[in-house]
Amino acid sequence: MAHSHDIPTDLTRNQELVLGTLTASAGPLSAYDILDKLRGDGLRAPLQVYRALDKLVDRGLAHRLESLNAFVACADMHCHRKGLIAFAICESCGKVDEFADEVIEERLGTWARTGGFKVERTTMEIRGRCADCLAKAA
Ligand SMILES: [Zn+2]
Ligand SMILES: [Zn+2]
Which domain holds residue 128? Predict the structure, then answer.
């Protein structure tokens, strides 16, 4: 989260708008949330948003959270172009923390090699309560 974002300069206008919206958001956004926020910028069709999201996800600039059917901007687009990506999703406030874990990645790598499984991508989604929400509840 503390990393700075180097937004690539070769994005289309729609990709830039969508990535900007995701980056500015405190939590994950669905494609329709994004569309709502960008209506003023001339985006009208869900397909425009989906196309932009596809490209951003492809390039590792954004991630799709399967369990929420929502998207987040990548917290650090340089450290994990491939490999394991993990998300801790707070079910109280909706905050999402993205991290990578080499130990888990290594273990999965060993498992995959042993079983002859070719891993394309690994996304972990951990649901629970964040430290802030736990502190508030205490
Ligand atoms: Zn990421
Ligand atoms: Zn929380």
Answer: 83-138
Between the CA of 2 and the centroid of ligand 2 the distance, in Å, is: 18
Neighbours of ion ligand 2 (CB under 5 A): 90, 92-93, 95, 130, 133
- Given 41, 75, 109, which residue is the final one in a domain? 75
Which range is least confidently modeled, 24-28, 55-59, 80-84, 110-114? 80-84
Pairing of strands 62-65, 70-73: antiparallel
Cα(33) to centroid(ligand 1), Å: 20
pLDDT of residue 82: 61
Residue 6: inside a domain: no
Q: Which residue do the tokens 């990578």 mark?
A: 100
Q: What is the pTM of this model?
A: 0.83
- How far apart are the C-alpha atoms of 87 and 108, rounded to whole Å? 17
